[in-house]
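Review session, final week

We close the course with one last complete record, chosen because it touches almost every idea we covered. It is ATP synthase subunit b, a protein from Campylobacter californiensis with 170 residues. Go through it on your own first, then we will talk.
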Amino acid sequence: MKIKFLLLMVLPILAFASDHSGANYDIIERALNFLLFFSILIYFVAKPLKQLYLDRIANIANKLESIQEKLRASKAKKDDALKRVEEAKINAASLVETAKKEAQNLVQKVKKESELEIVNMERSFKDQKDFEERKMTKTVVNEILNEIFASDSLKIDQKELINIILKKVS
């Protein structure tokens, strides 16, 4: 630091100590003045420029970290969504399997109920048939008896009729 300051003070002296004889070439003085100006400029502007540069780097690093965080969050969401999709596929497969089992159970239940209904209908038909046969028999017997009793060809007295009924009953 002291060397820079000493150099800064000595440079103007050296610039004015030059000889003005002969041709007037002031290139050295101009170069020294430029170096002096540039040195002063660097001395005063270097720290703020360096701080500005470091702040810019920190700002970019913060943005990069923010973007990385968003990327991690979106990746986590993607992984979560993929897990949910896999779970949904597994659930869908189990639901399809359960639906197939339920359909088979329903088919068996309907088949069993249909068989029972058919057996009940056959039994009902048989009972109805027997009932109709008895009804028809009674009707035929009743008609025949009415014909027999209506005609005078068969005369049965009351005692004989009671004996016939008693024989049939016992």
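Two points worth writing down before the exam:
Residues 85 and 91 are 10 Å apart (CA to CA).
The mean pLDDT is 85.
Good luck, everyone.
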